Amino acid sequence: MIEVNGVSKAFSFPDVRRDTVREHVFGLFRPPQFRVLSVLDAVGFAVKAGETVGIMGRNGSGKSTLLKIIAGIYPPDRGTVRVHGALTPILELGVGWNPELDAIDNIYLIGCVMGLRLSEIRTGIDEILAFAELAPFANLKLKHYSSGMAARLAYSVAFKAVREVLILDEIFAVGDAGFTLRCEERFRQLSAAGHTILLVSHNPEIIATFCDRALLLEGGRILMDAPGNTVADRYLELLTEPAEIAPEPAA
Amino acid sequence: MTGHHLAGFAWTLVRTDFKTRYHGTLAGFFWALLKPLIMFGVLMGVFSYIFASTPNYRLDLIIGLFLWDFFGEGTKAGMTSLHAKGFLLTKARFPSWIVVLTSASNALMTLGAFILVIVTYLALDARLPGPAAIAMFLLYLVQYFLIVLGISLGSSVLFLRYRDLNQVWDVVTQAGFFIAPIIYPMAILPERVHFYLYVWPPTPVIQFSRAVLISGTVPTAKANLFLAAVTGIILATGVLVFRRYAPRAAEYL
After folding, report:
1. Which of A50, A83, B84, B177 lies at a 20 to 30 A Cα distance from B214?
2. Which of B88, B91, B99 is most worth mutating to test chain A (most A CB atoms within 10 A of its CB)?
3. Which CATH code is given to the segment(s) A48-243?
């Protein structure tokens, strides 16, 4: 269902960042020095239809970048990604609303981006609001929402939008116990219904419980590809070891 | 995304842009009309004395101002459109040109309201030009929109890398207001500089629109071809720049 072949991604940062025309004009005679931070290095794996695969790794190990490349938000520098089916990504939730619009209009915007048709949003909006327990605040502008409320709304829309493949970044990290339970319940339903799921989490318990298989990322490489609980244990060991993050200077 | 889906998305973008800008009320929309109208009042008060001998100076001025307003507002919104909708770009993959395309909708609505008013005025004054002239006017507006779209497409991706591009553009448009013959009749300038003024895209659109609307004369074929060529060049350049930089847009947000 998902095929990732030799995907590499590096971000280059100038030592002195130039974000403006002025800086570029005045910096013409001082060529910028770039530092290249390799985030992913020849990552390859495949996910079968109906499989739930977890991804673990320390901060900066490349998890989120990998998800963004699979979702098509970032292009890879090298390598290919093939997804055979409609994909719904749930990334960076809680940030990314128009604060001047109310919940309903924001649901329409995000819903469209996630691949829902207007008619689907119109008929599903009560369900979305109910799942997030935000029906009484439907006409409240997002700027008045707490971060927890905003994140609940985001999950709610995404769960509605799921087609075949679901990509999740740090699920279950938001909301109160009741909401987390409902998310887990919905997650089990989706998995049981045969959806293919790719899931990033720092929580070993979640990976061990929900995933058929998991990948452990370290320094942009896959360190381990094994059953969920094995990877969860290895991840906990890894946390006590020193990190080795070394930005390589460009040629 | 299918065409049907894309249309629904475009409509949602237009609707929410309108709501954000004017708080969802028609009264809010009148503020957008008020800006060029007040400019008209002030400029009229001063310049109609200077150009008292110019026939139709008022009509020339108001047509020029509203067409200019569309250019200024449209390109401004277009340049910052991807940045403003960055919260959507980092969420999922979708054709991001739709965001740029719909960014001109507010400016387009102001222009639409103005066209309604000016055509009604001309009709009441029994000076409405023939259908051929009206058709030409609409053709100029379509080309004008494509010019604004081309500039918006190119500048929207460049703005993500050069964050002071909007200030550079502010200076350009401020100078451009005087390069286009909006408050002065072009005839006061020597013939030899006319060509240079016509290179600035709003100039031919404003001049040709005045010609067809007020005197009902259609510009020469050569003049029309010139405008079509300018439109083509700007749109093609914008599309090329957009196609080159848009895939990595999310990395620059």
Report:
1. B177
2. B91
3. 3.40.50.300
